[in-house]
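ok so for the tutorial part 2 we go from a plain amino acid sequence to predicted structure tokens. step 1 is just haveing the sequence, like this:
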Amino acid sequence: MPTIAVTTWSLEQTAPTDLLPAVAPEGDVRVVRSEVPSPEFSRFLYASVGGDIRWTDRLSWSYARWQEHLERPGVETWVAYDRGTPAGYVELEAQDDAVVEIVYFGLLPGFRGRRIGGHLLSYGTARAWDLADRWAGLTPTKRVWLHTCSKDGEHAMDNYQRRGFQLFDTKVEEEADVAAPGPWPGAFPI
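step 2 — the prediction. this is what the tokens look like for a chain of 190 residues:
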């Protein structure tokens, strides 16, 4: 199978004051926590947001694996809605030592370029900083981090840096060159 070189950048914030919020987009855009663990909805978000940028890691997950993951303490999904339609999401995961990872973040293709992403990232990052307020037993967040890669959208890195994330690591690795699966075959033009 052919391979491609993929660059992965890891970025972090080490204090809540590092967050540089984006201006909220015009119109009826809301960000709501998906409080009821729903493997169907989470898989829909994952496949719809990442389908054109080769998110494939979770496509083979069983229903039970999705359910187990979503029920873990400190795992949260925040969804942006544009006039009631899901536009994108951010998934947070509490880790050891008061660290929260923004595991997944992105918009469905039809909602990109409309200033929703900066707002959603700002909102999700703020929720990473106050995650312990919603989960008994979690230590207050001391660090928020994420990674992006050369397969992600062309504006991803700029958005993270404009929100106050600082680069702390870069890696280049060879990966299998898989086709972008889309949320279903043929959903995106090549």
